Amino acid sequence: MDKINARSVLSLLGVALLLGAVGCAARQTGAKTESSAAGMDASGEVIDSSLVEPGSGKTIQGIDDWEGETTGQSFPGSKFDQLKMGMSIQEVVQRLGEPNEFTTYMTGKAFIPYYFGSDQSRREMVYANQGRLVFAHEGGLSTTFHLIWIIYDKEQPGKL
After folding, report:
1. At 147, which helix (H) or strand (E)?
2. Rounded Cα–Cα distance for residues 160 and 156 (Å)
3. Where does the pLDDT of residue 8 fall: very low under 50, low under 70, confident under 90, or very high at 90 and above?
4. What is this structure's pTM?
5. Are the C-beta atoms of residues 81 and 134 closer than 8 Å to each other?
6. CA-CA-CA-CA dihedral for 122, 128, 129, 133, to nearest 10
7. How far apart are CA 99 and CA 125, in angstroms?
8. DSSP state of 13
9. Which one of 46, 70, 113, 153 counts the least CB within 10 Å of its CB?
């Protein structure tokens, strides 16, 4: 059996320590603080609603035990102040009118075998100079979506 060279061991150890330090430094610079949340400024105003991440706002209890989140700050003239978490798309459209644009997409829950609960798909609606609304599918064979996220953005363009 060959003897292990002490110099080789020390070199490998040094490389491992260096890689570990670089990894820790990279992880540290990527850390987010409340004031640097994606798509938001330090005062909590949304500056780009397409970059805002779930969990960056306040949790709100809504109607029929629906829980949701509001991100950003309400502003004078905001139509979103009339909304409550858990409202259906139909109720929202009756109050606000048709959105400028919308899209529907599946979530990861759609791929869970035998999962028939809510939030398998979402619908996102954009209202110019108001912000974005995100709705979760009720689940099962229902065609109803319920409001789960309000993103206030007074500079919101009419596009997704």
Report:
1. strand 145-152
2. 9
3. low
4. 0.75
5. no
6. -10
7. 6
8. H
9. 113
